[in-house]
Amino acid sequence: MRAAKAKPPLDGINKYGARKSDCDNCPLRDQCRPGNAARKVLRSILEGSRDLARDLSLTDAYVTSRSERKKVEMLLAATAQNLRKLAKLIPPPELAMAP
To answer: What phi and psi values does residue 14 have, to the nearest 5 degrees?
Structure first.
């Protein structure tokens, strides 16, 4: 088991371990280690960013922003579909034949 270091692990997962004596005396043991689970915690190096994104997604500003983005994205999708239809209506230029 390696401790968290300043250099990120190659597999992208920090592995934290606890001593048996620490786990045996902990009042949260049953919540943390249900059954016979190992005394280790795996945490992605990206989990901090995920936690931040989860917290931001609960704000009123995010809900408003998401609603506005959805409206714009729907408009852009409709515009792309219309341009595609328009491109199909325009006949292709005739190929110039060399003499």
So the answer is: -85, 135
pLDDT the model gives residue 96 = 57
Among all chains, which residue has been given the structure tokens 């409206």? 71
Tell if the pTM clears 0.90, that is, is over it.
no
Strand ranges in 1-99 using DSSP code E only, listed in sequence order: 13-17, 40-44
d(CA 24, CA 34) in angstroms, rounded, equals 13
Q: What is the dihedral of CA 26, 45, 63, 79, to 10 degrees?
A: -160
Structure-block tokens of residue 91: 């006949």
Is residue 83 within a helix (H) or strand (E), and if so which, with residue range? Answer: helix 60-89
Could you give phi then psi for residue 38, rounded to 5 degrees?
Answer: -70, 160
The whole-angstrom separation of Cα 9 and Cα 39 is 20
